[in-house]
Design goal:
- The chain is α+β, with helices and mostly antiparallel strands and 150 residues long.
- The protein has one domain: Alpha-Beta Complex (Sufe protein. Chain: A).
- Helix content is 45%, strand content 20%.
- It has a four-stranded mixed beta sheet, with helices on one face.
- Strand 1 (31-37) and strand 2 form a beta hairpin.
- Helix 1 (2-18) crosses helix 2 (66-79), helix 2 runs parallel beside helix 5 and helix 3 runs antiparallel to helix 5 (123-140).
- Bound molecules: FE2/S2 (inorganic) cluster (FES).
- FE2/S2 (inorganic) cluster binds at residues 37, 40, 42, 64-65, 67-68, 128, 131.
Length: 150
């Protein structure tokens, strides 16, 4: 059963890496922030289109490893329609999950993002999974410069 679940999780990561969702530019984006992982040189640009304090649209550009690509692809899907506060709460839950601060998977809160929970056993990959989220955090704080995982 557990092995089946792990296979399913891996399949979701492969799928999002092969066919990233929301891989495009939002021309009239309200927020645009670049995220950078200096350990490997991977970078991405996150675009947000806001409607009041709600994220109307989210997209990204850039190249990264399979985990960072799958993570940003999943993130852009899940944050659409969320308020800034909801997205921040999701960031915190996701961060706690991937850094091992919470052992239990809060499936209701994170949904599909659970596929990335396995990175907590691989410290070098945690930054791959959280790069997109640190970039989102900066975008929500309206920091228009670039953000680094270091
Ligand atoms: Fe660069 Fe994963 S190896 S973000």
């Amino acid at each position: 059963m557990f092995e089946d679940l792990r296979d399913l999780y891996q399949e979701v990561i492969f799928d999002h890496n092969r066919n990233p969702r929301n891989f495009r530019v939002i021309d009239n984006a309200d927020r645009k922030v670049e995220g950078f992982n200096p350990l490997c040189g991977d970078r991405l640009t996150l675009f947000l289109k806001m409607s009041g304090d709600t994220i109307d649209d989210a997209s990204f550009q850039g190249s990264g490893c399979a985990i960072s690509t799958a993570s940003v692809s999943l993130m852009t899907e899940i944050i659409k329609g969320k308020t800034e506060a909801e997205a921040e709460a999701l960031f915190k839950t996701f961060h706690d999950m991937t850094t091992g601060k919470t052992e239990e998977l809060q499936l209701e809160a994170i949904g599909k993002l659970a596929v990335l929970a396995g990175v907590r056993d691989y410290p070098a990959r945690v930054k791959c999974a959280t790069l997109a989220w640190h970039t989102l955090d900066a975008a929500l704080k309206n920091e228009v410069a670039s953000v680094s995982t270091e």
